[in-house]
Design a protein that fits this description.
This protein is mainly β. The chain contains 5 helices and 33 strands. The longest helix is centred in the N-terminal third of the chain and has 9 residues, at 85-93. InterPro entries: Carotenoid_Oase (IPR004294).
């Protein structure tokens, strides 16, 4: 059996596991609140085969969809591979056939022109469907009960883009989902397809526009009136790909941009605002309107957080030297010009989580992951190679910050939020926490935390009996939503 490279992408919490398994009635330490009733889905990159090249990365790992089912204080767990076309081809061949990250010119000729996506980034629930998504291809629909893969989803052929974002946004009042695909008509294209689906999951509009250059648009935002597209200078180049090089290379001297357009799809009314050169953000907390002002809160850094993207652009920066923080950009749409205001509102961090009810609206608080220097050196793992070891709650209106500290040798993955039916209660956070138990031995637990009392730590813990690889993003789907799944109706 070919060995995996002993790089940061395949050791520590990134050690391949590759096991599909399920268990019922996992042990629970403490008590899970009865109102937590539904499923916590997680996207877990986990390569099923050793890569063709030793410089492969976490983001190339085959997508696994994991599910914690929580009902009546009991917890079940299951995890399965997403049966993408890529996974099926390599499973039949019993080896890797697809080459470097997002570079089809490095593939085995036997898979030329086949679907390369691994659907490993975000579980998305909308209109009764569960999709596993990665922004380099279309999403794959998965049965939320069995985790069986149903197939690629393109709104019955109505959505014409070749790609679909891993970060759509759902309006909590209208139920509409807003989404896009970049490189929409092929590699290194500047074309972006912007779509809107109604609450039942029907595509109601699709409009295309050009971004200033071909950048990785990982996330975007909506307000009650606008769709907001931040463009950062991590760019693709077709000649570089053809020579076997990296898809993405960060350009530190290139300007960033923000496009703001009416969210109903009037791309002709898009306004472009020029930002600082070299900055980068992969995840947005929220955006909202305030008269003529549009506020955008994002996890900003002074360069790209991914080492392989920096290095491809000739940038040699230690991960610990990257600066930034939770930042608010404010755009005054009543004024001419392409400038905007910038203000730091919170410490550095990423993987933010907002209450679904606050999407696109003024919000009181949000949560995100950060590094606590008192927690010791970070554990190796996760997409950037180092795992977070603290959870923050921030109230941007008054600057209040609270922190859930972890003990030495622990790490935390992105939380999901579960709303509470109790008046005045901020709900609950679910997250997977890892602990190093030996040089190459890691133990994982599901934690349940009171969302407005995070410093108190978990009210319940669920130890996991087998190793778990680090997730990217997750989603909470209530039992009521699961009962309306389209997969049930099809059956």
């Amino acid at each position: 059996m070919p060995a995996y490279p002993q790089t940061i992408h395949f050791v520590g919490l990134n050690t391949p596991v590759g096991i599909e398994w399920a268990a019922r009635n996992l042990d629970v330490i403490g008590a899970i609140p009865a109102e937590i009733d539904g499923a916590f889905f997680r996207a877990v990159p986990d390569p099923a085969h050793a890569p063709m090249f030793d410089d492969d990365i976490v983001l190339s790992g085959d997508g696994m969809v994991a599910k914690f089912t929580i009902q009546g204080g009991k917890v079940d767990y299951a995890i399965r591979y997403v049966e993408t076309e890529r996974h099926a081809l390599e499973k039949d061949a019993r080896r890797a056939l697809f080459g470097r990250y997002r570079n089809p010119f490095t593939d085995d000729p036997a898979v030329a022109g086949r679907d390369r996506t691994v659907a490993n980034t975000t579980p998305v629930w909308h209109g009764g469907r569960l999709l596993m998504t990665k922004e380099d291809g279309l999403g794959y629909e998965v049965d939320p009960d069995t985790l069986e893969t149903i197939g690629r989803w393109n709104y019955h052929g109505a959505f014409t883009s070749q790609t679909f974002t891993a970060h759509p946004r759902v309006d909590p009042h209208t139920g509409e989902m807003f989404f896009f695909g970049y490189e929409a008509d092929g590699l290194c294209s500047t074309k972006v397809a912007y779509g809107v689906a109604d609450r039942d999951g029907n595509l109601v509009s699709e409009h295309w526009f050009d971004q200033p250059y071909c950048s990785t648009i990982h996330d975007f935002a909506i307000t009650q009136q606008y769709a907001i597209f931040p463009i950062f200078p991590t760019t693709a180049d077709l000649d570089r790909l053809k020579s076997g090089g990296a898809h993405w290379a960060h350009q530190q001297d290139l300007d960033s941009w923000v496009g703001i357009m009416p969210r109903d799809g009037k791309v002709a009314e898009m306004r472009w605002f020029r930002g600082r050169p070299g900055v980068s953000a992969f995840h947005i907390v929220n955006a909202f309107d305030d008269g003529d002002l549009v506020h955008l809160d994002l996890c900003l850094s002074d360069t790209n957080a991914f080492g392989f993207m920096r290095e491809a652009g000739g940038i040699q920066r230690d991960q610990r030297e990257i600066s930034g923080g939770l930042t608010r950009w404010t755009f005054d749409l009543s004024k001419a010009g392409d400038g905007f205001e910038e203000r730091l509102i919170g410490p550095p961090g990423d993987m933010p989580r907002l209450r679904d009810a606050d999407q696109g609206r003024p919000y009181r608080s949000a949560w995100y992951l950060s590094m606590n220097p008192q927690g010791g050196p970070p554990l190796p793992g996760g997409p950037v190679g180092f795992a977070f070891n603290a959870l923050l709650q921030i109230e941007p209106g008054n600057g209040r910050i609270d922190m859930m500290e972890l003990e030495f040798g622990m790490a935390i993955s992105e939380p999901v939020h579960v709303p509470s039916a109790q008046a005045g209660h901020d709900g609950w956070l679910l997250m997977v926490v890892d602990r190093q138990a030996g040089e190459a031995d890691f133990k994982s637990e599901l934690w349940v935390v009171d969302a407005n009392a995070i410093a108190a730590g978990p009210v319940a813990r669920v130890p996991m009996p087998l190793p778990m690889r680090a997730q990217v993003h997750g989603a909470w789907v209530s039992a009521a939503q699961l009962a309306s799944a389209k997969a049930h109706q099809a059956a």
